[in-house]
Amino acid sequence: MSSVNVSFNEINGLIQTQTPHTIDQKINALLAPAADIFSSIIFYAVPVGNSNIPLILIWLISAALAFTLYFGFLNFRGFKHAIKVIKGNYSNPNDPGEVSHFQALTTALSGTVGLGNIAGVAVAISIGGPGATFWMIVAGLLGMSTKFIECSLGVKYRQIDANGKVHGGPMYYLRDGLGELGYKKLGKSLAIFFAICCVTASLCGSNMLQSNQAYQQFVVAMGGESSMWSDKGWLFGTILAALIAVVIIGGIKKIAKFTSTVVPVMAGVYLAAALFILAVNVTEIPRAFSLIISGAFEPIGVVGGMVGVIIQGFKRSAFSSEAGMGAAAIAHATASTKEPIREGYVALLEPFIDTVVICTITALVIVITGAYTSADGIDGVVLTSRAFESVIWWFPYLLSVAVLLFAISTMISWAYYGSIAWGFLVGDSKALDLVYKFVFCVFTVIGASISLESIIAISDSMFFSMSIANIIGLYMLAPLVKRELHIYQAKYKE
Fold first, then answer.
1. 329, 88 Cβ separation under 8 angstroms
2. Residue at 168 is within a domain
């Protein structure tokens, strides 16, 4: 086995190889080899000390740092203006678009806030220790700049058809933006590559991962391995797919209405429970921060030492916030505005809410309760549930509901992302759009039926592959966005 595969398996656990008997095991046995192939390609790593650093992580973090410097730390300076835009200070009901700034933000957040925060943080800490949290925060802050540029471009190069439906995202700014610069063939090639990755990511990434973890938490709430549901992932997935279908057939307006209600409520409930635990253990918070900071620079007992901790933090942050992947630009392109830069300001709040706030609070609960010290392998959402349960005995039941709603909101957002990318590839046809949505629901069933190890391998690979084409375009179009930023700032200077 190559060093690349060894590194990946250290992170995600060895794929189960037992003889398949149940439906779930047969599906897992079918997909596990594909997961291994995908991960070995996308996460090709170079050795540094005792660790292997995936080149794709260097690609993402370098871009986030470069854009932060290029735009003069707009991720911090633009915070106040972003809040005003969200409040509706600059809204005009006559502006083109389909949804409000707030609805565009919640739709994009629904694709990121959820199991990436609940399960992903647990995975990072169980492997990299508390110090992984520090590097998740750093990556989240830098990722705000990447979100700004990709979502500004998403609005600038969007297309609105005769029916008022918006088509936007990296596919369009790669093709049309780079075409304006004289790179038509390159732009078209990158756009097609991104669209293919986006469709695949929507099916194998968020869809399957959310379905899988929602099922795992449901089984825990129903009594664990002794539950009648313990080997019925396919049945749970079928029910979930039916619920998803009801929403995604309605299009972006129905999706935005759903997410603008569900995301704030469930995030509020989840954060309220987390803050209650922190309040009960308020004297332990300084110790937790001490473990996080010291663990970031002086990791003890972590494979790969400091480099290994950084890898876990950056990787989980990238997976949680999706900064650099470009998918959020598809949702933000639907915002009602004439100013692309304005929506860019809105978008930079995404990684802050998702990673800096929610992920940090989740990490503090896991560290304070000490749940990560008794983790046996990668438990994902189960580890987070265990941490909350140590203080609030009935929390696993509440978390089951929260996880299910987070999973549904994430999945319907990614169903929209995938449908726009699918339409870019095959044409805007209602019949073909329904074909995609049917396939999406089928993958929902599959996701609930295979192991977490295979899910992580496939979903990580597909998500990160999107950043390859997207970031190439961002580098080339950054000067254009900077010019428009200066014009916008001069127009709305306070």
1. no
2. yes
One-letter amino acid of 483 = R
- 2 assigned to some structural domain: no
**Tokens 């979502």, residue located:** 151
Query: What whole-number distance in Å separates Cα of residue 208 and Cα of residue 220?
Result: 19
The two structure tokens encoding residue 176: 């049309």
SS3 of the chain: the string is CCHHHHHHHHHHCCCCCCCCCCHHHHHHHHHHHHHHHHHHHHCCEEEECCEEEEHHHHHHHHHHHHHHHHCCCHHHHCHHHHHHHHHCCCCCCCCCCCECHHHHHHHHHHCCCCHHHHHHHHHHHHHHCCHHHHHHHHHHHHHHHHHHHHHHHHHHCCEECCCCCEECCHHHHHHHHHHHCCCHHHHHHHHHHHHHHHHHHHHHHHHHHHHHHHHHHHHHHCCHHHCCCCCCHHHHHHHHHHHHHHHHCCCHHHHHHHHHHHHHHHHHHHHHHHHHHHHHCHHHHHHHHHHHHHHHHCCCCCCCHHHHHHHHHHHHHHHHHCCCCCCHHHHHCCECCCCHHHHHHHHCHHHHHHHHHHHHHHHHHHHHHCHHHHCCCCCCHHHHHHHHHCCCCCHHHHHHHHHHHHHHHHHHHHHHHHHHHHHHHHCCCHHHHHHHHHHHHHHHHHHCCCCHHHHHHHHHHHHHHHHHHHHHHHHHHHHHHHHHHHHHHHHCCC
Q: CA–CA separation, 216 vs 220, rounded Å?
A: 6
Amino acid at 84: K
Q: Is 12 contained in some domain?
A: no
10-residue mean pLDDT profile of the chain (494 residues): values are: 34 41 63 75 76 82 93 90 83 75 76 68 76 85 92 91 83 94 94 91 78 75 68 80 79 69 76 84 86 78 62 73 86 87 89 84 83 60 71 73 77 87 87 88 80 66 86 95 92 70
Between the alpha carbon of residue 77 and those of residues 74, 85, 170, 264, 424, the distances in Å are 5, 14, 25, 25, 35
Model pTM greater than 0.85?
Answer: no
Residue 4 lies in a domain: no
Q: Which domain holds residue 182?
A: 21-491
CATH number, position 155: 1.20.1740.10
CA distance 329 to 416: 12
Tokens of 436: 């995609």
Nearest Cα residue to 384 out of 404, 364, 401? 364
Total domains in the fold of the chain:
1
Q: Which amino acid is at 310?
A: I
